[in-house]
Design goal:
single chain, 95% helix, 3 helices
């Protein structure tokens, strides 16, 4: 008898669920779906804008790094040429070797300094470029949580 009551109860619940579905509930559901789709479309548009902003920051960072590195290489080349000329006109082999050793030592120090500057630059660029994407991720989490409710 308990099985018969359960079958009857299930049938009644199914019938109530079907009768609760009306044009008004369909309209409400459709409006909710449309609102959600518009919300996602707006979110995607903002996400593309965030990606473009991030790419712009990266491009500017690359441009600045390339310009800085080109200036550094040019300066190092000019110093190398000046050292070679000075060594060629030196009065003794000892003086030429001292000039060359000094050039190598300072060039090494400058290269280490330049590498450090570039590392700091790229760290800053990475942080700045990731900011718009990080914000979008936070907004994505909020949007997903709003649909859970």
């Amino acid at each position: 008898m308990a099985a018969k009551k359960t079958a009857e109860t299930a049938g009644e619940e199914s019938f109530e669920a079907l009768t609760a579905f009306s044009p008004d509930t369909f309209k409400d559901g459709y409006e909710k779906l449309a609102k959600g789709m518009n919300s996602w479309a707006d979110f995607q548009k903002s996400s593309v804008e965030a990606m473009m902003a991030s790419a712009g920051v990266f491009a500017k960072g690359f441009e600045k790094a390339a310009s800085t590195q080109a200036s550094f290489v040019k300066e190092q080349f000019e110093e190398g040429v000046a050292t070679a000329k000075a060594a060629a006109t030196s009065k003794s082999l000892q003086e030429a070797l001292e000039l060359q050793n000094e050039f190598v030592r300072t060039a090494f120090e400058k290269n280490l300094g330049q590498a450090s500057k570039l590392a700091e630059h790229w760290t800053g660029v990475a942080k700045e470029a990731s900011d718009p994407l990080t914000k979008r991720y936070g907004e994505f989490v909020e949007l997903v949580q709003s649909y859970r409710a």
